[in-house]
Each structure stands twice: as C-alpha cells, then as structure tokens.
Description:
- The protein has 176 residues and is mainly α.
- Helix content is 65%, strand content 0%.
- α1 (6-27) packs antiparallel against α2, α2 (43-54) packs parallel to α4 (81-97) and α2 crosses α6.
Amino acid sequence: MAEHKPSRLWVMRSVYLGIALLIPLLHLLPLTVGPRAWAPPDLLFALTYAWAVRRPEYVPALAILLAVLLSDFLLQRPPGLWTAIVLVMIEWTKSRESRQVETTLVLEWMSFGLVVVAAILINRLVLLVSVTSTGAFSLAAIQAGATIAIYPLVVLVSHLIFQVRRTAPGDIEPYG
Length: 176
C-alpha cells in the first residue's frame, strides 16, 4: 500500500526532477581536453521514457518540459526544439501505453528504439529546414545507437534502485 500514498507520488516526482537536473550537469564535466569522437547516450530521454511507460504519474508533462528545457539551455541546443520533440514523443507513448496491459521488455525496447530514431530524425530535419548547424550525421547515429543500447540498464536501475515498476492489472491507481 505504500506505493499508493500521495507522498510517494511527490517524492518520486522530486526524484525524477533531481536525476533529470543531474544528467546535464554530468555532461558538462570536463572529462576530455579535445572534442569527442563519439556522442554520449541521451540518458534523460531514456529515463523519461522508462518512467513514463512504467508510472506515467511520476513524470508529468510540466516536469518533462522543465527538465528537458533546462538541458537544452545547459547543453547549448536550440532552446525548445528537443524539448518539444521529447514532450510530444513521451506524451504519445503515455497515451499509447495506457491501452496496453502486457508488454515485454523486448517489445518496449524496440518501441523505444523507434521513438529515439524518429525523434533524432525529426530534430535533424527541423534543423536542416531552418538552416541551422546540425553537426555530423554519424554523431547523431552514434547517439541514437548508444541511447537505445543503454535503455535496458536504465530500466534495471529504475526498477532496482528507485522501485519504478509497471502497474499491475490488479493495482488500484488513485492518481488517475
């Protein structure tokens, strides 16, 4: 019954925001002197997706908006573009997942892979249309591959450490 307390909901929303604020700060750490030959995975997108699929009430749209927009500013991406793409993709996933009762990790991983590829392609297309510097496509492909590859680890950490589990069919959901 501890999972159904309103305090747990707000604690988990705060945990999400805390992790979401920590991820861009870790990207800013000066670990190398020169430019990177690879792009790191988008852990914020993977974390948001994993939590949205399992417990959509833990990641409301406003929290996603604040976290990803701050990440846009800190990582010097065009403000709002990646935020809008991530927000639309996550909200679409939430609406789609609410209709599905049983999903295996493999199907969820494949769905996440398609969402990541679509999000990165939409991002690059909008940047190309607006005549904005996009960087090398190989870096975007590496980032997409790394993000997809790291997803099971994000799910495992979310499950084991933060106790973010999928709602069982018999669970009572007082949050809607």
